[in-house]
């Protein structure tokens, strides 16, 4: 019997607002515990919420970017539950009338097939506080309570852990690009829960699902889903009865463990939030928000392939972040050589950034620096090898290539007479080059070229060096 997964993901993304969803407290990450709070976000008696308009706009923006329908007449609801990090004993969220519905994300599978993952709904709500477990007991920090969220709920269209990772990666790139959320998983501003069940391939009914929590990276999501699939298959094959459970991912032991059983659905006793007015969203408001949506990463990728004739791999890597895509786009236009710009940015520049742990936005030079580097290599001022040294100097100082070349005396030597003298000296000192070449080992010429470049400290024109080495070896 062959089984397949049925997976749905629930992603919480904190919104990029300066203040909380129902009060004026800051949403800034960190800060001394319980200092970013007020009577409203603490749920003190007599305090009344007021919905932050920017939260609604960012929710609409996310929905439009994710191909959703916008609910024009909606409301906020109370979701009742008691937990120490929920100061009011209820959460203000949306139940029957979510802000956005019926969207989708298209992902590209390894085979090249495009698969559409449906989005059931996107609703806005407030975040809870944070529990801090210590040796003295559990403490609560309410700084995060009331920070605005969107919850993006996918349809159960995902079939493998790899598809889940592709979906999450694309969702994150869209939300980041739209400036809806900073999506920093390490700060908790992007969190994911997964629902997974199994069924025999070719059948329609869903199996008994498990909800997995406590996953703090996409890799953890992939590993947890893979483990849970294997666990459920093993249990069903052995004749065990599965039950609806909430499980946590144990990163240390690479396994899921039971948190609680959910044999019956939780009764949150949803009802309309009486302290907030009905949401009325006009077509004009929706269109005004639509105008603020930038070119999305997958749209940039397609444009780079078409406009700059880049390989798909290059275009994908260059659009992983907005800052990288914008830097390349400008460098490609200025240099009029997109492939060369791509090679320098994805190669040596990325290596330098990885070593230093920096990002494109931290660079000391602008895209015109890459364009100028390509120019001085093309016109023969320096070789590609010297270009690597120049780029390192640009990275450290922020100076432009021409200034660095002048300052360090790196200009390429194109004097054939001077280079010829060095070639003959290298051949005189390495008679084995002639012997091996005449015996058919032509690759020895590369050694001779390397020795000449070393003797000229990399400043000899490589084309002239190659030509002269071949010429002089053939004469002997």
Describe it for me?
The protein is of the alpha+beta class. The chain has three domains: 3-288, no CATH class; 297-408, no CATH class; 416-475, Arc Repressor Mutant, subunit A, CATH 1.10.10.410. The chain has 15 helices and 16 strands. It has helices at residues 53-65, 161-177, 218-237, 283-290, 297-308, 312-318, 322-335, 338-356, 367-378, 384-397, 401-408, 416-429, 432-438, 444-455, 462-475; strands spanning 3-14, 69-70, 73-74, 77-80, 90-93, 100-108, 114-126, 130-134, 137-141, 148-154, 190-200, 210-215, 245-250, 255-261, 271-272, 279-280. Helix 5 (297-308) packs parallel to helix 7 (322-335). The N and C termini lie far apart (74 Å).
Domain tally = 3
Q: How many strands, what sense, and barrel or not for the largest sheet?
A: 9 strands, mixed
Major β-sheet strand ordering: 2-6-7-10-1-11-12-13-14
So what's the overall shape?
elongated
Task: Assess the beta-strand content as a share of residues.
Answer: 15-25%
The secondary structure category is alpha+beta
Radius of gyration: 30 Å
What kind of oligomer do you see?
single chain
Mean pLDDT: 93
Low-confidence stretches: none
Number of helices: 15
Q: What is the number of strand segments?
A: 16
State the separation between the terminal residues, measured CA to CA.
74 Å
Keywords:
alpha+beta; Arc Repressor Mutant, subunit A; nine-stranded mixed β-sheet; 15 helices; elongated
Describe how the helices and strands are arranged.
Elements: E1 3-14, H1 53-65, E2 69-70, E3 73-74, E4 77-80, E5 90-93, E6 100-108, E7 114-126, E8 130-134, E9 137-141, E10 148-154, H2 161-177, E11 190-200, E12 210-215, H3 218-237, E13 245-250, E14 255-261, E15 271-272, E16 279-280, H4 283-290, H5 297-308, H6 312-318, H7 322-335, H8 338-356, H9 367-378, H10 384-397, H11 401-408, H12 416-429, H13 432-438, H14 444-455, H15 462-475
Parallel strand pairs: 12-13
Antiparallel strand pairs: 1-10, 1-11, 2-6, 3-16, 4-5, 4-15, 6-7, 7-10, 8-9, 11-12, 13-14
Helix pairs in contact: 2-3, 5-6, 5-7, 7-8, 7-9, 9-10, 12-14, 12-15, 14-15
């Amino acid at each position: 019997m062959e089984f397949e997964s049925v997976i749905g993901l629930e992603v919480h993304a904190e919104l990029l607002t300066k203040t909380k969803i129902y009060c004026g407290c800051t949403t800034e990450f960190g800060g001394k515990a319980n200092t970013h709070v007020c009577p409203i976000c603490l749920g003190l008696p007599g305090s009344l919420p007021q919905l932050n308009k920017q939260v609604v706009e960012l929710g609409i923006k996310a929905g439009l970017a994710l191909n959703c329908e916008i609910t024009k007449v909606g409301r906020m609801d109370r979701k009742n539950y008691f937990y120490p990090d929920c100061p009011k004993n209820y959460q203000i969220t949306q139940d029957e009338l979510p802000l956005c519905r019926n969207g989708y994300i298209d992902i590209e599978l390894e085979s090249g097939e495009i698969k559409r993952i449906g989005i059931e709904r996107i609703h806005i709500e407030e975040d809870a506080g944070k529990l801090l477990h210590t040796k003295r007991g559990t403490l609560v920090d309410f700084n995060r309570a009331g920070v605005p969220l969107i919850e993006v709920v996918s349809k159960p269209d995902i079939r493998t852990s790899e598809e889940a990772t592709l979906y999450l990666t694309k969702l994150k790139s869209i939300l980041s690009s739209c400036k809806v959320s900073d999506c920093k998983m390490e700060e908790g501003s992007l969190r994911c829960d997964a629902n997974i069940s199994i069924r025999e391939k070719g059948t329609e009914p869903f199996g008994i699902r498990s909800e997995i929590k406590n996953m703090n990276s996409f890799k953890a999501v992939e590993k947890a889903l893979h483990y849970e699939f294997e666990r459920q298959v093993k249990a069903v094959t052995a004749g065990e009865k599965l039950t609806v459970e909430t499980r946590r991912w144990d990163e240390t032991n690479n396994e899921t463990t039971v948190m609680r059983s959910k044999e019956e659905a939780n009764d949150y006793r949803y009802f309309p939030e009486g302290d907030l007015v009905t949401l009325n969203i006009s077509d004009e408001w929706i269109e005004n928000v639509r105008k603020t949506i930038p070119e999305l990463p997958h749209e940039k990728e397609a444009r780079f392939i078409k406009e700059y004739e880049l390989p798909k791999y290059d275009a994908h890597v260059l659009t992983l972040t907005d800052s990288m895509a914008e830097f390349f786009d400008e460098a490609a236009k200025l240099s009029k050589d997109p492939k060369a710009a791509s090679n320098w940015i994805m190669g040596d520049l990325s290596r330098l950034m990885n070593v230093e742990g920096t990002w494109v936005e931290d660079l000391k030079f602008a895209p015109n620096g890459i364009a100028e580097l390509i120019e001085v290599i093309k016109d023969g001022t320096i070789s590609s090898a010297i270009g690597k040294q120049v780029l390192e100097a640009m990275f450290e100082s922020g100076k432009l290539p021409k200034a660095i070349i002048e300052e360090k005396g790196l200009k390429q030597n194109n004097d054939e007479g001077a280079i010829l003298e060095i070639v003959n000296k290298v051949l005189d000192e390495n008679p084995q080059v002639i012997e091996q070449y005449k015996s058919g080992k032509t690759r020895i010429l590369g050694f001779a070229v390397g020795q000449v470049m070393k003797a000229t400290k990399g400043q000899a024109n490589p084309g002239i060096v190659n030509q002269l080495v071949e010429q002089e070896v053939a004469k002997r």
